[in-house]
Amino acid sequence: MKEGRDELRNPDMPARALAIKPPDFPSAVRHWWRAYENLLFIRWANIRNEWYFGVIVGMLFPIAIMIFMKFSGSTTDPATGLYVASGNAVMSLVMGPMQSLCNDMAWGRQRNDLDYFAALPVTKLQVTLAYATVSGIFIIPAMLFSIGIGSWWFGFPVKWNPVIIPVMLLASLSMAGLGVMAGVYARGIHQANMFNSAVMLVVVFLSPVLIPYENLPGFLQVASRLLPTSYAAAALRGSLSGMPMPEILRYLGLLLAFTAGFLYLGTKRLDWRID
């Protein structure tokens, strides 16, 4: 034992004996991904018998908006039709996961679901991403439906660009953290629904989703820059109409900033022990 203590104090001890084993990043990534997959399965198992309802309802809002815009005379040319159809798609992509997370977290607090997740070896970010992913999967049909019907009805051409995949991903996650915060702060499912309605009004009237940016009043043009839906709509329209790649990447960078900021705030507020 004495020799062992002397050896630890010996400055000439071989470097290999003092070497610290570096972290195994590939193993850590596999472990993180496996836990995320398990949470996806748990979330899907909870709603597997009602998935079709979410898909059908998700399609009703875009088609209702396009019917209104068509028969009201608001879409007089293909360019305006692209604006309406892509705006519908963005509304579904951004608002769907946010509203779903808000309701899920508020309902989960009432049923003490957070206690269940607290007992699992998972992080708050993994839970948030798993819930947002399942919600986003339900929204993709509504988005494609809006673009497809809009292209056929309004006559605008669609130039599919592979960059639309990261646009869809970041758009669906851009306000997910806000939904987590609202759901945790809400005192019940009714308050969560009120918050969702308020955010819907803000997004529709304060961001250039259905109304061109140039047609907004000056103060609304400034306010729209504070909403991720503005950049999600611009990126989606750009990926469908042949916008230069540097411009699309700029919008993606802004969406990534909103996503990271809201996810940080949302997971920071999401406390397993909250009452």
Written overview of the protein:
- It is built from 13 helices and no strands.
- Helix content is 77%, strand content 0%.
- It has helices spanning 2-9, 15-18, 25-47, 51-71, 78-111, 113-118, 124-154, 164-173, 176-185, 189-206, 218-224, 228-241, 245-269.
- It has one domain (25-269).
- By secondary structure, it is an all-alpha fold.
- The model is unreliable at 1-9 and 13-18 (pLDDT under 50).
- The longest helix has 34 residues, at 78-111.
Give the amount of beta strand, in percent. under 5%
Q: Please bin the fraction of helical residues.
A: over 70%
Q: What's the structural domain tally? A: 1
Distance between the termini: 52 Å
What structural class do you assign from the helix and strand content? mainly alpha
Layout: helices, strands, pairs:
Layout: H1 2-9, H2 15-18, H3 25-47, H4 51-71, H5 78-111, H6 113-118, H7 124-154, H8 164-173, H9 176-185, H10 189-206, H11 218-224, H12 228-241, H13 245-269
Helix pairs in contact: 3-7, 4-5, 4-7, 5-7, 5-8, 5-9, 5-10, 5-12, 7-8, 8-12, 8-13, 9-13, 12-13
Task: Name some characteristics of this structure.
275 residues; disordered N terminus; 0% strand; globular; mainly alpha
Short description:
This protein is an all-alpha fold and 275 residues long.
